[in-house]
Amino acid sequence: MQHFDFSVLGEWQNIRLLLQSLWYTVIYTLGGFALSLIIGTFISFGQMSKFKPWKYVSLAYLSWFRGTPLLVQLFLLYYGLPIVFGIDTVPWVSGVIALGMYSGAYASQVIRGAIQSIDRGQMEAGRSLGFSYAQTMRKIVIPQAVIRMLAPMTNEFISLTKNSSLLSTITVVELFRQANLLIADTYKTIEFLLAIAILYYLVNNLIGFIGLVLERRLGTGDDMR
């Protein structure tokens, strides 16, 4: 029977390395999420645009990034750019970009759905007040849509946090990669896997809690209806 020794988790050096790598995971995820919001906004408006080239580019983007695995996209970006274009790639930069591009496809659907869920009368009311289309979107439609995006965007953020573990495959030292390095040194597989599982659990539930608080404060929570 396997003997477990959880004392390795109490050693300061191991605690420091895990917490440091957790911090890197949070930073990479935040970077990827910020990029996904930019890309998602561009793609969502492209889908709704009457300008056909923009619309077709947006649809092609969605088709590719929703139809291929993140791991494949990550490898294509990290290994493909040096091979095809001779561009040197930095592991963590490639990882953040890959996370952002992948998540951007899903974020775009959240953004588009939230905007299109706003009653058309809101747009008509804004235009009747003399606002331009852009002003109506900025002052009336988008503020309401942002509130409706909170719950699905929180889920996307949590999903991205978990997907960040794939960055370990291109040698980025985030939480999962650091756990593997410690396992290689100590041979304590279950101990460190349980430790990082708990850390992921705590971080993701904290994200969920923050999202719930924002929903309730903005009047979207169940108890505010």
From TrEMBL:
**May I ask which residue range the UniProt record assigns to the signal sequence?**
none
Q: Which residues form the ABC transmembrane type-1 domain?
A: 22-211
* Pfam families, alphabetized: BPD_transp_1
What membrane topology is annotated for this entry? Multi-pass membrane protein
Q: Which UniProt keywords apply?
A: Amino-acid transport, Cell membrane, Membrane, Transmembrane, Transmembrane helix, Transport
* Coarse class of the protein's main subcellular location: membrane
The record's listing under InterPro entries reads:
AA_ABC_transptr_permease_3TM, ArtM/GltK/GlnP/TcyL/YhdX-like, MetI-like, MetI-like_sf
Query: Where does the protein end up?
Result: Cell membrane
Superkingdom of source: Bacteria
List where the protein spans the membrane: 22-45, 57-80, 92-111, 192-214
User: Is Transport included in the keywords of this UniProt record?
Assistant: yes
Extract the Gene3D superfamilies matched here.
MetI-like
Sequence similarity: Belongs to the binding-protein-dependent transport system permease family. HisMQ subfamily.
Instruction: Please identify the protein, giving its name as recorded.
Output: Amino acid ABC transporter permease
Query: What is the organism of origin for this protein?
Result: Paenibacillus ehimensis
